[in-house]
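Support request from a user on the community tier.

User writes: "When I paste my structure tokens into the form, the page sometimes reloads and wipes my input. The last time it worked, I copied everything first. Here is what I submitted, just in case something in the input itself triggers the reload:"
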């Protein structure tokens, strides 16, 4: 039995028992994976997968137990490699980040650029996904860290570290009636127009829906998208009033759009980094988290991850505070958020 065989086994299970997809996933050949699977089953003395002709039909009861233990073994092997790399002060490797489009597009570029300057031999792989999928990627071991936002609740699935808070903007074309306002509209005024927002707004418990329902109103959600750039595109097309994260606004957007800061109109959101407690985090990943949240003590974060202390995080700053601080240090505009501060 080898780690390679166990890795192939997990790839098959996570690819819907499709060996072709599993081979692509682990950069192997289909005959090579089939051969290794047969050798493993011969060694164990039973089938891990039930067959139907030449296809794998289902995981056997014994196979379920083997796969569960294989995941633990592979995870611990990865932990040992990460621990050894940290002890050697190794400055190369990869960092897989599962996050939303807004974070990947508007929050992470400067931080990742800084990380790459410090660790040029670290490859960074972004996995932009929907809110629910981000945490699922972390749970399946397909991401090293997850970055998500919530309006009140703490994300489940690992150690959740608060990074910063942020508000939403109401976005309209400059020719829209609401553009004449000097401040964000009231909810009853906003309820008169179709809205363009994130797909999470469709959820019954979304913070946007809760805000309207709390005022005895129903939001008219016309279009949803994961991508903040798409929200802006459909607002420009006149298909509705946009409601999106303040980080998503750029100076060039203001040529034809008007952004109305809306603090207090909707619940304040918090962006979190979620880490697996059972994984050894590489030092460069810890540096990324520390740069995203300068209010955190890096050594304290490591002690929490190592189980030495319990979490006692400082209150996260507002996004506008982080932007203003960064601009003061570098004198380089970060975006519209600083102008709205």
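"...and here is what came back when it finally went through:"
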């Amino acid at each position: 039995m080898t780690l390679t065989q166990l890795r192939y086994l997990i790839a098959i299970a996570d690819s819907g028992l499709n060996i072709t997809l599993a081979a692509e996933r682990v950069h192997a050949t289909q005959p090579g994976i089939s051969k290794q699977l047969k050798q493993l089953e011969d060694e164990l003395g039973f089938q891990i997968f039930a067959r139907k002709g030449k296809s794998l039909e289902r995981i056997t009861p014994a196979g379920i137990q083997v796969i569960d233990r294989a995941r633990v073994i592979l995870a611990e092997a990865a932990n040992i490699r990460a621990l050894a790399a940290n002890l050697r002060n190794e400055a190369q490797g990869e960092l897989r980040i599962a996050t939303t489009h807004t974070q990947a597009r508007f929050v992470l570029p400067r931080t990742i650029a800084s990380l790459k300057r410090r660790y040029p031999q670290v490859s960074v792989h972004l996995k932009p996904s929907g809110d629910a999928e981000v945490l699922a990627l972390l749970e399946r071991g397909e991401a090293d860290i997850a970055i998500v936002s919530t309006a009140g609740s703490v994300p489940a699935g690992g150690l959740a570290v608060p990074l910063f808070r942020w508000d939403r903007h109401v976005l309209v074309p400059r020719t829209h009636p609401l553009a004449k306002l000097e401040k964000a509209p009231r909810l009853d005024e906003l309820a008169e127009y179709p809205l363009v927002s994130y797909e999470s707004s469709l959820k019954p418990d979304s913070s946007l829906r809760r805000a309207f329902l709390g005022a005895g109103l129903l939001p008219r959600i016309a279009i949803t998208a994961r991508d903040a750039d798409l929200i802006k595109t459909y607002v420009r097309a006149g298909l509705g009033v946009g409601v999106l994260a303040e980080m998503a606004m750029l100076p060039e957007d203001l040529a034809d759009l008007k952004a109305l800061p809306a603090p207090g109109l909707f619940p304040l959101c918090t962006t979190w980094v979620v880490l697996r407690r059972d994984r050894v985090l590489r030092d460069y990943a810890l540096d990324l988290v520390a740069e995203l949240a300068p209010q955190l003590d890096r050594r304290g974060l490591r002690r929490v991850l190592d189980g030495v202390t319990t979490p006692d995080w400082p209150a996260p700053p507002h996004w506008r505070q982080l932007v203003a601080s960064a601009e003061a240090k570098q004198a380089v505009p970060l975006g519209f958020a600083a102008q709205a501060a």
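Agent notes: The reload is a front-end session timeout and is unrelated to the input. The chain is about 40% helix and 20% strand. The chain has a mean pLDDT of 91. Escalated to web team.
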